[in-house]
Amino acid sequence: MAGIGKCMGIMSGIGLVGGAATSYFMQAKSNKLAMERAKTHAQNGKIKIGGMTPDGKLWDGEMTLDEYKKNINKKTAITAGISGVISAITTTIVAGLTLLIGRKIVK
User: Fold this and answer.
1) Which residues pair with 58 in a beta bridge?
2) What is the pLDDT of residues 10-57, one digit of tens each?
3) For residues 41 and 65, what is the distance between their CA atoms, to the nearest angstrom?
4) DSSP string for 45-99
5) How many CB atoms lie within 10 A of CB 54?
6) How far apart are CA 43 and CA 60, in angstroms?
7) What is the pLDDT of residue 2?
């Protein structure tokens, strides 16, 4: 029983790290392109932003490039974490089913 728990623990750890790392590195390329695009659109080191309030009024604002980069990095970290957890769960399920099937075939 300890061998099964160890195996599933190791596989879930590998799934967590692999899923998070893959997601992070894939998003890093997009983040670089977004920052380059933001630098070309920036005026005086600020990006124009705006939107609509819930009551329908439009608003205008500005964001510095540093704030924009911090927001992108925060989003990337959160997404990588979620992707890692989902990957770990999926990997653990597959490892468990594989061990279960292997045990039924051997017996």
Assistant:
1) 52
2) 889 999 999 999 999 999 999 999 999 988 888 888 888 878 888 888
3) 10
4) TEEEEEEE-TTS-EEEEEEEHHHHHHHHHHHHHHHHHHHHHHHHHHHHHHHHHHH
5) 5
6) 15
7) 64
